[in-house]
Each structure stands twice: as structure tokens, then as C-alpha cells.
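Exercise 7. Given the components listed, write out the predicted structure of the assembled complex. Treat all entries as one system.
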Amino acid sequence: GAVVSQHPSWVICKSGTSVKIECRSLDFQATTMFWYRQFPKQSLMLMATSNEGSKATYEQGVEKDKFLINHASLTLSTLTVTSAHPEDSSFYICSARDPIHSEAFFGQGTRLTVV
Amino acid sequence: QQQVKQSPQSLIVQKGGISIINCAYENTAFDYFPWYQQFPGKGPALLIAIRPDVSEKKEGRFTISFNKSAKQFSLHIMDSQPGDSATYFCAASRSDKIIFGKGTRLHILP
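Answer.
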């Protein structure tokens, strides 16, 4: 089946630095990818919708300048957490929808820890 | 409305029993209803999905029942096994968005 690959699976960074997370669709071209944040024992919170070749659409309350999203190709979207702080520590997950079969697949997730 | 309401929040089932998780949605524009299974520290994995033109879909021990008029759908896990212990999310989707339920933590007693 279709696969969405997310990298890295975990990262530890110092407060004030930036971290980039990559999301790749391996078996299909994804014009739209989604970025989620998940707190322990909670559901997935949609942060933004990444559109290939155009600006991302952010959900209410998500800081655009802090969570930079780039969708430069049909198979790659990146999320950059800028000037990370400990409160940004979380599990970040990307998702891509196969436009032909309409099925949505998730990456493995990235555990970000800011120290 | 964009909400997807999922219940119960947690569920304990004996091994071999049937696990049932329910979801309800509000927006009739949704056209795809998947269920995801998530283990700790992993991303959600697509388990089974249904479209509103069918009332039931079965894959192995997993069955989705869909009631379009009531805007409700449910996941049934037959012969539940300890390996099924995980968090399950229902979702309602259209081309530009996927809305998730809050999740159900399922625990199968050995």
C-alpha cells in the first residue's frame, strides 16, 4: 500500500534552535499534505494544510511564523519549528491523501524534545 | 460543522469478545470515513475505511457499519485479541480536510 515517510523519528534540540521535519509520499503524488500535533493520550490536532506550490493554510491559533511549512514538490512537505522552546515539545505527525484512491496515510511521527 | 464525536473514550474487553466504537459526524460534505489504529510512539495506521454509498464493510475481524441518515458509523472488532490493544481514531474526510474523533483507548484483557 501507499507509504508516507517522515524523518526524523525523534529529535532533541536546544531551546532557541530550529528543527526541520520532512514528510515524503513514496507511492503517490500528494498535492495536499497535513501536519498534526499530538499531546500524550490525546487526539491529533490539525496544525496546517500544506498545498504544493502555494502557501500553507494554518488552523486558528497556530503561529505561522513559528511553524514554517514548505511544500516544494508533489512528494515532499517540510515543517520547520523555528526558535523552538520546551513548550513546543510534542509528537508531530504528517499525513498525505492519495488523490486517486482518496485514502489518507500517516507518517511515523516525529518526537520533538526541546531542552 | 466540522466535529466528529467518538465514544467511548476508553474500553475494556475480554479476549475473544467484540469491541465496538462509535462515531457521529455533522457535515454531510464528508465522503470518506476511515478508522486508524495507533500504538504508543507511532503514527496512526489506516485500518479500514468506508464511503457513504455502502452500509457495511468487512475486512477480516474488522467491520465498519455506516448509517448515512443518522450520520453515524461504528467499528466492530470481532474475536478481540490482546494485540488489538491500542488507541483507535475515527475520522471524516473530504478532499481538503480530515477531522478526527478524540480517540478510544482499547484494552483487551488476556
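Discussion: DSSP finds no helices and eleven strands in chain B. The mean pLDDT of chain B is 93.
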